[in-house]
Amino acid sequence: MARSTAEGKAATASKAAGEAANASGTGAAKAAKARQRGVTMTDVARRAGVSRTTVSFVLSNRADAGISEETKIRIAEAVQELGYRPNAGARALASQRSDWYGIVTEIVTAPFAVDIIKGAQDQAWLDRRFLLIAPSDQADAHGPNQGLEDAAIEKLLEQRVEGLLYAATYHRGVHVPASAGEVPTVLINCFDADGKLPSIVPDERAGGRVAVQRLLQAGHTRIGVINLDPDIPAAIGRLEGAREALAAAGLELDPELVVSGHATADGGYAAACTILDRYPEGEGRPTALFCLNDRMAMGAYDAIKERGLTIPGDIAVIGFDNQELIAAYLRPKLTTVALPFEEMGALGVRTLAALTAGQPIAADQQLVDCPLLERSSV
């Protein structure tokens, strides 16, 4: 009798274990099936034994919902077991917040664009925001592909971005598509030609001033300038800064020492040749050249060395932009003024965050300092 009773208990235990295993297997199978077809909030609610509304309240951190900790734990466990991921689009529709900013920029592989994006992305991450990047590659030298730019902005708006950053690879006035006005928008390294949108640009004038101040400190008083296209904002600001620095020292910029050229090494070479060849005997020749970009400085190096002159012994050279693949590899290494692309990207995100929160911003146009980077050419 005792043996029969023991055998009965063992059989009952075995049956219970089998039923539990079957239940567990069924639950795991259901979870796997749910994951395969895409887990929904309803699946989570069913697994946790609560209503779909309760799950929604917990996942959106509704403090006024009055849901117990035990229920919250059950829902969290169900979310983890099922591998549920909230639908970002639906959440954005409900909350009117997506945690995404859009950035439209030309030629995303260009070094300047990469630096702007990095600065913006790093700042966005600190703010628990994310970037959606849409390129608008230039069709020609006159500006971006307008059709692609319009489409890029429309696509970002379809993703319900909270705001837009519109970035240019060189400082200029731009006409931004009207659709950008549907959300807060900040311009980086460019300004709105219509004067409607806030912008963040380099302080070109201060950059020109600090470059010439450095040459004056080194004892140079006869300074040549290899200029860009004289009508663009970068050239205007940098040249004004150079004149201000000279005026503060009681000097004037000699028009004979200012030559404009293409913003290339060839353009810099030709402009430097023009300046130097005006003084073949050396008397009156400038002892320093301020080149308004690093590529032009590279060409100026060749013109100087071809004439048997040394840098910085005979002629000091300062560039502008801090293009790393040029400035750091010229011999001697080029002292230059850096364009603050990462800083502008970061400030763009901070400004956009203020606008989306309804807070005031510092100014319609914010200027970012251009620091001097000392190397060996002065």
TrEMBL record:
InterPro entries linked: Cro/C1-type_HTH (IPR001387), HTH_LacI (IPR000843), LacI/GalR-like_sensor (IPR046335), Lambda_DNA-bd_dom_sf (IPR010982), Peripla_BP_I (IPR028082)
The HTH cro/C1-type domain, residue ranges: 36-78
GO MF terms, alphabetically ordered: DNA-binding transcription factor activity; transcription cis-regulatory region binding
Claim: Transcription regulation is one of the keywords in the record: yes
Regions of compositional bias (Low complexity) in chain numbering: 1-31
Top-rank taxon: Bacteria
Ranges of residues in domain HTH lacI-type: 39-95
Entry keyword Ligase: no
Segments of this protein annotated with the region Disordered: 1-36
UniProt KW keywords: DNA-binding, Repressor, Transcription, Transcription regulation
Protein name as annotated: LacI family transcriptional regulator
Organism: Arthrobacter cupressi
Taxonomy of the source species: Bacteria, Bacillati, Actinomycetota, Actinomycetes, Micrococcales
